[in-house]
From TrEMBL:
Catalytic activity line of the entry: 2-(N(omega)-L-arginino)succinate = fumarate + L-arginine
Bilayer-crossing regions: none
Gene Ontology CC entries for this record: cytosol
Protein name per UniProt: Argininosuccinate lyase
GO molecular function, one term: argininosuccinate lyase activity
Main location: cytoplasm
Gene responsible for this protein: argH
Amino acid sequence: MLWGGRFAGGPSPELEALSRSTHFDWRLAHYDIAGSHAHAKALGAAGLLTPAEEAELHRGLDALSDGIAAGTVVPDPSDEDVHGALERLLIEEVGTEVGGKLRAGRSRNDQIATLFRCYLLDHSTIVGGLLLDLVDALAGQAEEHLVAIMPGRTHLQHAQPVLLSHHLLAHAWALLRDVDRLADWRRRVESDSPYGSGALAGQSLGLNPELVAAELGFTGSTANSIDGTASRDFVTELAFVAAQAGVDVSRIAEEVILWATKEFAFVTLHDSWSTGSSIMPQKKNPDISELARGKSGRLVGNLTGLLTTLKALPLAYNRDLQEDKEPVFDSIDTLEVLLPAFTGQVATLTFDVDRMAELAPQGFSLATDIAEWLVRQGVPFRVAHEVAGACVRECEQRGIELHELTDDDFAAISPDLTSEVRSVLTVEGSVSSRDGRGGTAPTRVAEQLAELRSRVADA
Ligand code: ARG
């Protein structure tokens, strides 16, 4: 018990049950111990521990660390949280005389704010690496299908032919921005160690927060102790990046689900990365993508829950803040289990490039090419759009595709439509003509693939 002095009796079992957080904050135990090592150094440097006392504390903390790793040191049901449990266990290890000195000049409020950051910093790096693996898988598929052509869609309708590689890389760029967001988040968080903020007002013992910060791998300590203990935007921001990444993955997932249908038949899923049905022997289901789509909902939910907990919460620390951990832990856990599976699924997709290419010009997706060809002949775009639209109307009435119109048909629609217009009525001609930066021409897509790869190398 951390606060016996002014209480005549212990907490009721109901309060204990409500208050307890060890079932979810025990995962922070190693970080709490690292914080305690650093704090012991600060106490020693301030002359509040003799060298022997400090050494004994480090020894005791190491013993706890070993016990935690081995699973022999665990919280007791009477422990409220990871901090209380570790203090009790340390005192059992080194005795009250020395163990009781470690709490001086710190509060669970600055402890949790610091070690929660440490945990999230480590896991943001893991998640960033997993996102890069997915970017790699997309880039690998793009490289393999560099010049394969597919129907590009807007409103899910055939729009213009594009390269499959171009489409896949569009997803990769979005994910790379999520990786970048994580790096940006880390830059802010790793310069902001709250140890030394105390409960809210700072500490009076002459401890050096910069020393603790450096020991824990931070580049600086918090400038305002109230902010240090009460702010949780580092949690919501990470939950946002997790939610955004989940949403980005869900957009790929939805396409895989569509592409794997009989109607699309663009992709075949690898046996090891798809599932069967317990009743329908023929089934091959895109469960990984469906779970990705579903889990993006819980990632958004976690972010929403965290923001709702923080809304209008007065300064400084309030116990509401104990609700900050489970949602973001869940977001991290979710991505750490989802991303490897999703990457495996993407890396092993087999594309039916012939079918994609065959469908690419259908639905009059080359109509824009006719209009732009006319513009290159000096026809105003407004007129060109009308003329190309008339071609589509003609084809629709006769149940044919644009390239099946004869020279006479073209001439009857507009005198500007000479037979040269046929040069853009192939999907290859269409994609090659979109050769401005970022466009779908094979040279441009090869260029963006190289650009993406160099960004990945720098990430
Ligand atoms: N376990 C708490 C949390 O996660 C930290 C303890 C602070 N408790 C307190 N009564 N000040 O937020």
